[in-house]
Amino acid sequence: LRLRRELTELISMRSKILCTRCPAGWLQFAGTCYLFSTDAKPWMEAKDSCAGLGGQLAIVNSELENTRVFWLGLSDMHKEGDWQWVDGRSLSLSFWGSGEPNNVGQHGEDCATVSSRGLWNDATCSGAEAWICERSC
């Protein structure tokens, strides 16, 4: 029974390490496929584009992934201050910049972006930013 469990774990790890089934144009990283946009869109349009491609806006699960995204699949548009990923999970790991999130402006800031330094910022969802989709291999 122990041997079977260890074999199952090894097979699972192997598929993550040797992921070669990403669609054309997608890049593999840590067992996940990523598609980097060549255009800028508002958050909701980027989210819909990813869904149409069989993925979702990128969710950051590690500091290493945090250097690879623009629009994050993270928002508090349903309830101010309650940040959730596009898959419905609550925010547990974060890399907010100093003073963020701050919800500045007349209409507030309900969608998250990441800077080239890896720091997060809450931004107006209607602004156009580059975006990254992710999907399983």
UniProtKB/TrEMBL annotation:
Molecular function, one GO term: carbohydrate binding
Occurrences of domain C-type lectin (ranges): 29-134
Superkingdom to which the source organism belongs: Eukaryota
SMART domains attached to this UniProt entry: CLECT
Alphabetic keyword roster: Disulfide bond, Lectin
A Pfam family it matches: Lectin_C
Keyword set includes Protein transport: no
UniProt cross-references to PANTHER family, sorted A to Z: MANNOSE, PHOSPHOLIPASE, LECTIN RECEPTOR RELATED (PTHR22803)
Protein name in the entry: C-type lectin domain-containing protein
Organism expressing this protein natively: Anas platyrhynchos (Mallard)
